[in-house]
Design a protein that fits this description.
- With 143 residues, the protein is of the alpha/beta class.
- The chain has one domain (8-141): Muramoyl-pentapeptide Carboxypeptidase, domain 2.
- Helices cover 22% and strands 26% of the residues.
- It has helices at 17-30, 69-79, 114-120, and strands at residues 8-10, 34-38, 59-64, 90-96, 106-111, 123-129, 139-141.
- The longest helix is centred in the first third of the chain and has 14 residues, at 17-30.
- The mean pLDDT is 88.
Length: 143
């Protein structure tokens, strides 16, 4: 029996090649398909920050098939050292919770600009926002 390779379903364009490769790696790491429902943007939807990586075409919002966003984020948090990074890329992984100031709960992945990757080094910065009514619009490091 052949098991199909997990894939990324792009419902919106994501033009950043490093981010596309990372999304494929995440699908393989989790063994699940991903649904990217937001990517490159030329507008700011409700709650979106002024300097959103989406506006620079360097971010994607997604859900993982068969998992809640919380389950997927916790697993990615635990496996973040297994994500492929290199000397000039640093990524942000954000769980926008059910009380998010953005449009709805989701996982956001962004590819920081080159200068941030060089300054902070490779890796993944993990944040949460909107997990409770009190943390709507407030970002904090995920533990």
């Amino acid at each position: 029996m052949i098991i199909p390779k997990p894939k990324v379903l792009f419902l919106r364009p994501v033009s950043d090649i490093q981010l596309r490769l990372l999304l494929g790696s995440i699908a393989e790491l989790l063994g699940r398909d991903l649904r990217v429902h937001s990517g490159d943007r030329d507008y700011r939807p409700k709650g979106s920050p002024r300097r959103s990586l989406h506006l620079a075409h360097r971010a994607a919002d997604l859900h993982v098939n068969g998992m809640t966003d919380d389950q997927a984020f916790r697993l990615l948090l635990a496996l973040r050292t297994k994500l492929p990074t290199n000397d000039i890329h640093r990524y942000q992984l954000i769980h926008h919770g059910q009380f998010t100031e953005t449009e709805a709960e989701h996982i956001h992945i962004g590819d920081y600009p080159l200068i941030t990757g060089l300054a902070l080094g490779p890796g993944v910065t993990c944040l949460v926002e909107g997990m409770t009514p009190q943390t709507k619009g407030k970002y904090s490091r995920a533990a």
